[in-house]
Amino acid sequence: MRKVLYRFFVDYEKEEKWVNEMGAQGWHLQKFFFARFTFTRGEPGEFIYRNEFISGMSSSEKNDYFEFLKDSGISIINELGGWVYMKKTAADGPFELYTDTKSKIAYYKRMLNIFALLFFINAWMGIANISNLWDKPSYGFIVGFFNIAAALLIAFPIIKIIQRKRLLEKDQKFFE
Hints:
Low-confidence stretches: none
Helix content: 40-55%
Radius of gyration: 19 Å
Order of helices and strands: EHEEEHEEHH
Shape: globular
Strand content: 15-25%
Number of helices: 4
């Protein structure tokens, strides 16, 4: 049996939690595509799912990383736009991609760099398109509005990532 659900998440950790809750109910992720998740029926709790932002890796780095994951018993489900979903059999024990604070902070920094770039590009394009409205009426206002809306949507994960990164840095300083 197959089930397709549409969900839009701004917080990738909430998305991952939801996918794992679906897995606990016996719905196993088969594919995802921008807010569209395809599940198939299976054994409840059979897999643990993780998502990761891998943008910025070269093709060979990505292939090496995927090979490392495969050797660790982790299956790649789907990759899209720099995001990859993977699963591991729950019977194999806990499944964490980043086991130390330093690597998790580095991961958050990589994500912040990409999201900040996307935020500034969309904000700049939005302002540029809207400001052209005063020169001559055009569809630029509509495009500019969507750019500003995209920038605002991107701001939410940026804020969440900054909060998580600061909390980890605070914990790291505490234990040093």
